[in-house]
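retry 2 of 3: previous attempt timed out while embedding oxa(dethia)-CoA. Reduced batch size to 1 and resubmitted. Inputs unchanged:
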Amino acid sequence: MKQYIHSIGVALPNRIVSNADLALHMDTTDEWIQTRTGIAQRYMVEEESHTSLATRASECAFATTSIPPHTITHIIGATCSPDTYSPSLAVSVAHNLGMTNICAFDMNAMCSGYLYGLEIARGLLCANQSSTILLLASELMSRRINMNDRTTAVLFGDASTATILSTQHEGALAELEDVICCADGTLSNCLTLGGACGKPKAVGDSITDDFFIQMNGREVFKNAVRIMPTICEQILSTNGYTIDDIDLLIAHQANFRIIEAVGERLGITQDKVFINVHNYGNTSSATIPLALYEAKEQGILQPGMKVLLVAFGGGFTWGSALLQC
Ligand code: UT7
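retry 2 succeeded.
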């Protein structure tokens, strides 16, 4: 039973924060951020809730497919930054969209969340071919960054995406050919996001640093550049392909230097490597669907293309997927 992506919707907050804006509040420069990361700006919410942003992304996804909202059977929220643990982002968005009696839940695989979401969607579609899935890959990272920590505060941004998947071939954007997801907690302390139930808390306790994202950037960089090409080679060889069969590489958008290094190690030409991190920063689970959406809007993603997706994030978690457009 084949599985297909039908449409991808995106919603962004209204506020754009430039590197110069950040330099007003912390010891950094536009030059440092652009040279080290490629990021020029990011979007950050002001008052809008995560649920509202993700609802807008879902509406955007429904606007470009003939699949009607009432046929959705499952909503998966891939996020590390929901408004609340309960209700989950998926349940809150279902409520906003007027959906009841559906299966809705969140899961967290940090920056690999979209690929983990595709893996779960694939399993659900295999289990029941009449399922139709709304996969939210959506983050308000700005609510989880410590503005006193310049080593992380300049990297992240907010974005919401919604992907509709089903087993129907008609009207599809791409077939989901394969997905591989992995995790290894050996180096889990290199990238952490606390603020959960690891420590007892009492009313009135102040927020501690571990509520925010904390990262050993150099270690994450090194491992991302080592692991992403390996998982790409694994998914290619498992499916009988080589890198020459790939028309477009979309890697998790954390840093243009990581993306270029992954492309080089794979031996794919840079014109086949899509990069949009300069406009959005690292939006964690949302970067890959945001890049897919933009590649389609810009006419880069064309019917017939074979697309390789790859992500790496906290945990560590990582994954890769193959799409046939
Ligand atoms: O999405 C999850 C995956 N996350 C990633 O993939 C991120 C991976 N890591 C990276 O992208 C990079 O490691 C960073 C962009 C985070 C850092 O770049 P780097 O080239 O590894 O820089 P560094 O950490 O080695 O820091 C170099 C210098 C340090 O100063 P000293 O010790 O050399 O004096 C930092 O204190 O740059 C300093 N620095 C800054 N300077 C200005 C760190 N952050 C900033 C800043 N502005 N924002």
